[in-house]
Design brief:
Layout lengths: L3 H12 L7 H8 L17 H11 L2 E3 L5 E3 H13 L5 H6 L35 H7 L1
Helix pairs in contact: 1-2, 3-4
Length: about 140
């Protein structure tokens, strides 16, 4: 599928109600097209972890326009499966990203740290001045 609306139509056929009942969830999956307007945008949300993130954002269920409660995870799984043919993990995506040198270029710390030196106690905090202090400062 290429557009979130078509996913929403598919959800309405599967779970009842209108496409508008499901549009927000399907749009959420595809809004990453703003970043990369080809299939690579799917690497950000089209995986098992993205499905659980979707559920944490939209809730466990939605109630469609005919009053039926539909699990958000099922809607999300439908979207990913329609686009991917299955549900990959985020690791499946990440394993296929070539590791570039710039991704792992450590920088030298500005200050040398002695890992075995005793930790100094944090300085005590001064009490917050009261209201009279602020009035006298004006």
């Amino acid at each position: 599928m290429s557009h979130s609306y078509h996913h929403a139509v598919s959800s309405a056929k599967r779970y009842g109600g209108q496409p508008e009942d499901y549009q927000e969830i399907h749009s959420w999956f595809d809004e990453t097209k703003r970043i990369m307007a080809d299939a690579r945008h799917r690497a950000l949300r089209h995986h098992a972890e993205g499905i659980f993130l979707c559920e944490s954002i939209f809730g466990v269920t939605i109630t469609n326009s005919v009053g039926k409660k539909v699990p958000v995870r099922l809607i999300a799984e439908q979207h990913v499966t329609e686009d991917m043919g299955g549900i990959p993990s985020a690791v499946d995506w990440l394993r296929n990203i070539p590791l570039e040198q710039w991704m792992n270029r450590p920088q030298r710390l500005q200050v040398e740290i002695d890992l075995f030196a005793p930790v100094e106690a944090a300085p005590s905090l001064e009490p917050i001045p009261d209201e009279e202090f602020y009035k006298s400062a004006i």
